[in-house]
Amino acid sequence: MVLAAVNGASSSCYQPAAQALLPQTVPAESRRAALALSRIASSSAMIVGASLGGVLVATIGPGWGLAVDAASFALAAASFALIRVQVAPPAPSPGLVHELRIGWQEFTSRSWVWVIVVAFCFLNAGITASFTVLGPAVADTTGIGRSGWGLVVAAGSLGAVAGGVLSLSWRPRRAILVGCALMGLTASTPLLLALAPYTWALVVANFVAGVGIEQAGVAWYSTLNEQIPEDRLARVYAYDDLGSFLALPLAQFAAGPAVLLLGLQATLYAAAALILLATLAMVAAPSVRALVPKAAEPLPASEDPVPG
């Protein structure tokens, strides 16, 4: 448990820094494609890593398999150390509180940012409770089984790869609105677990949900990269992570007692309702509906477009 807590804290430091690093390594016109490729690689690695892990456990044993896994993190650290970006000379820091205040101002000054983050706080809680905690329990007590549930999980990763490939060529004008709306697809998992816990249905639903999640992820991160000043991007990402994942421990703790109190089906229905209500809150927000990429914004009335 101590090591898990350290790992979670380390990941919280890593994610904002890594996301803010991308705009410093590629030109502005290529950032969306670079982000999509990065997420495709991540989703593909999840699939390959799971398969490779099974092979290692079967051939050299679980202990050595975990040792190889640990070595992969050292390789990742070495890869990050090789990245070279141009940064401004460090200025004297005015203090942690001041830095937090600047990040908070950037985070709260755009209503579409905090609306989406608050909505994802509830949306992620519904997904975590239904998919991570209750899904395996349903699989163990129905015809799905553990092998079937593995197929369901793999289908989500495959859907994420497909969604990343799609985002390379398809960018809706209101990408962030479309991405938020597609998150409603994730409600299909708890609904099917409650109504029709069949492996084939869950595989299809989770694949489609994976496509939607990836569209939302690419739209979200590319929009933040475009709208937030580069020197304050990591701070906004930090508040994004904090808000988006704040409810996850509570959802993990509450899923079991909720089943004892309400029953399994009612808990799954509640998780699906939470996901759908959070999605509706995002797509109904005027600031989310009005947001378009800067490249798609019309010129002011006083400016004429340059001919040719």
Automatic annotation (TrEMBL):
Keywords: Cell membrane, Membrane, Transmembrane, Transmembrane helix. PANTHER family: INTEGRAL MEMBRANE EFFLUX PROTEIN-RELATED, STAPHYLOFERRIN A TRANSPORTER. The lineage of its organism: Bacteria, Bacillati, Actinomycetota, Actinomycetes, Kitasatosporales. Its main location: membrane. It is a multi-pass membrane protein. It is found in: Cell membrane. This is MFS transporter. It holds the Pfam family MFS_1. It comes from Streptomyces violaceochromogenes. The chain crosses the membrane at residues 40-64, 112-135, 147-168, 200-221, 242-262, 268-292.
